[in-house]
Write the structure tokens for this entry.
Amino acid sequence: MAGQHLDPKTLSGSSAELSWPKHRLHYTFYGHNKGPSGDSFVLEESEGCITFAIADAAGHGEQAALFWDKFGEVFEDCWNQFLVGFDSIDERLRGFADTLNEALYTAEHPELISNHLCLAIGEWSDDGSLCWANFGYGSHVLPRTKAGGWWAAPEMLFGLKLGWISSSMRSKMPRAFVMNRAIDVDRVILMTDAYLGDDYDDPNQTLLELGQLNDKLAVLPFEQAHAKIVSLDEAPTDDVSLLVIERHDAD
């Protein structure tokens, strides 16, 4: 199994292009002001299937990186359970979110550490099917299918940010867990919200920009798609995570 896991507590910046048996990957990752970061991503590839999570802790820079000092091991335990689970993808995603949410909501923490986490987590199968869930508006998944960019109504895309509310409240709220599916996927872009501005200022505008960006990126070759996103904000004021993953046999 090939994998890539970046630790925001120690890594201030990195950019590279990798080639896996069935996919190629270009990633860019760095912390605000070249320091620690509140962003993190995890990727695993096995038999052509890619499992991913891209996370954005509340805040940015050193303050956001404190989140991973406190909850990094909990996150990794949830991730490992997600990887080895034999339940359906829906149940595995829900289990990951419920377990991590409970840990974040109930934890005691110093005043400067926020327990809130935006997260996108999913699995892209060798047959081109993609299943994922978003929690909060800070981590995004942009799939490209053989028919073009995939998009849906914003209210159907995002669940509630992890750590905001208790597990008992989450079980009663439809927006707590929102599952998404796309088929015939040949490219997936994962990104945090640094390139789209602060979603708290105007989440509807962020979602509008995200849909428009997905349409523009769908027609671009692999290298140009990465360059296009990076050019959106050459001096971001937030932590940055960007991954462009494409099948080698994509047109």
Remarks:
- The first strand starts at residue 2 and ends at 5.
- The first helix runs from residue 61 to 84.
